[in-house]
């Protein structure tokens, strides 16, 4: 399950951010595209495992799931490709040549609670 290595990398990045800014991580927000090859539920579970024994133990992982969308170059139509993906334009009946959304795998925010002095 590669989601565990992804979750571990997210935890490491969040710990670095917390050290740099001097706060406690309360939540990490990520965007996961439908075609990123990552199962959001497996990532959530892996995050729970990865935070055990770390400063992020009480932090939440908030996952925004991004649907896959394509655009047809000849007619300009944008459309959801679904799963399994169908990269065929519903308007002009040609193959779409560009996937415009759905491959994302990115940390968008690390929420911190300021350390009390």
TrEMBL record:
Q: Which PROSITE patterns match?
A: HYPA
Q: Which family does it belong to?
A: Belongs to the HypA/HybF family.
Q: Keyword annotations for this protein?
A: Metal-binding, Nickel, Zinc
Stated role: Involved in the maturation of [NiFe] hydrogenases. Required for nickel insertion into the metal center of the hydrogenase.
- HAMAP family attached to this UniProt entry: HypA_HybF
Whichever gene encodes this chain, its name is hypA
> Which positions are annotated as binding Zn(2+)?
72, 75, 89, 92
**Is ATP-binding included in the keywords of this UniProt record?**
no
The family database entries (Pfam families) matched by this protein are listed as: HypA (PF01155)
> NCBIfam families per the record?
hypA (TIGR00100)
Q: Which GO terms describe its biological process?
A: protein maturation
Q: Which GO terms describe its molecular function?
A: nickel cation binding; zinc ion binding
**What's the protein name?**
Hydrogenase maturation factor HypA
UniProt xrefs under InterPro entries: Hydgase_Ni_incorp_HypA/HybF_CS (IPR020538), HypA/HybF (IPR000688)
Q: Where does Ni(2+) bind?
A: 2
């Amino acid at each position: 399950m590669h989601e565990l290595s992804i979750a571990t990398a997210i935890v490491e990045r969040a710990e670095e951010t917390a050290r740099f800014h001097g706060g406690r991580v309360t939540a990490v927000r990520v965007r996961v595209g439908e075609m990123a090859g990552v199962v959001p539920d497996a990532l959530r579970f892996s995050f729970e495992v990865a935070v055990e024994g770390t400063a992020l133990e009480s932090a939440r992982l908030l996952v925004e799931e991004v649907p896959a969308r394509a655009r047809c170059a000849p007619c300009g139509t944008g459309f959801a490709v679904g799963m399994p993906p169908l990269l065929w334009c519903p308007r002009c009946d040609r193959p779409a040549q560009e996937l415009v959304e759905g491959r994302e795998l990115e940390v968008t925010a690390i929420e911190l609670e300021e350390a009390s002095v």
